[in-house]
Amino acid sequence: MAVSTGGAALADDAGIRVREVGSFHIGGSPITLSGAEPREAYVAEGQPPARVDPNGDFETGQVYVQYVRLVRPRSRLPLLMWHGGGLTGACFESTPDGRAGWQQRFLASGLDVYLADGFGGGRASWQRYPEISLAEPLFRTKRELWELFRVGPAGSYATDAARRRPYADTRFPVASFEALVRQTVPRFRTYDRSTQAGYDALVVKVGPSVILTHSAAGPLGFAATIAAPDHVRAHVAIEPSGAPDPSTVDLDRLRRIPHLIIWGDHLDADDSWGDLYASTRRFHDALRKAGGRSTWIDLPTMGHRGNSHMIMMDANSHQVAHLIDSWLKKNAR
């Protein structure tokens, strides 16, 4: 399927008329903790510690969703946006340097938008550790974010911002790197199953819709599509962290569901990116061979060089949003 990058990029604000803004939590299940030792806990500055009993009944595993519904959406298919690991739905709201994010751009294009915070991130809460969570949360350093998100090559980060050496052609707004760091959250690697259940429930609740995923949410999006092919009308995967082994999937269930897979630049920076790229390519090729509809885009081959892993934040994010929107108009039904 051909995808054009011509034409004007999506506007920041095309006279957006909003009908409703709201939120809800979905998924999760009750859990009872017992047998944990009471402890002394800090209450407030100047106050003595309080004796706290951690045992009791809790709800756990819920996903948070914020939605914006338009007065007259151009499509009956809302856009569900799912963030990557260590991030929240905020990554789609605004760019680190203050430009309109993809939430606003797709609203301006006429789509209702649902932003999710996966379990353990943002407003989705998390479990007690170590009593319930199976592993401690991971906190990414600035160096890890700089290199993993491909703002600069290995060894190019420095504590002193003036000494950092980003890629010469980077599209990421380097001067606002700290703004990206501030919105990252601890990552709980044992929460994927709960987040998947919440996202699957979201798809059923919303009904026919389009899923847009980034990074670690990519595999969750593929799984949600396989689980509910009558509800998911298209899946846009931005640099997904892998895809299902096609030999384990009934590809006939997916033949009618168009997929768009987009990759940025400098993927040779780390072997892990090459592995994720290859596994996703195997799925794409197998789906097409089975008669499915899948579009693969390497942005550098289309003239967009220097994109980081955070494509929705890069200087050309509006152009990539326009590319996605044009594809959806042609393919999402």
From TrEMBL:
This is Esterase. It comes from the Bacteria. CDD domains: Esterase_713_like-1. It comes from Actinomadura syzygii. The lineage of its organism: Bacteria, Bacillati, Actinomycetota, Actinomycetes, Streptosporangiales. Gene3D superfamilies: alpha/beta hydrolase (3.40.50.1820).
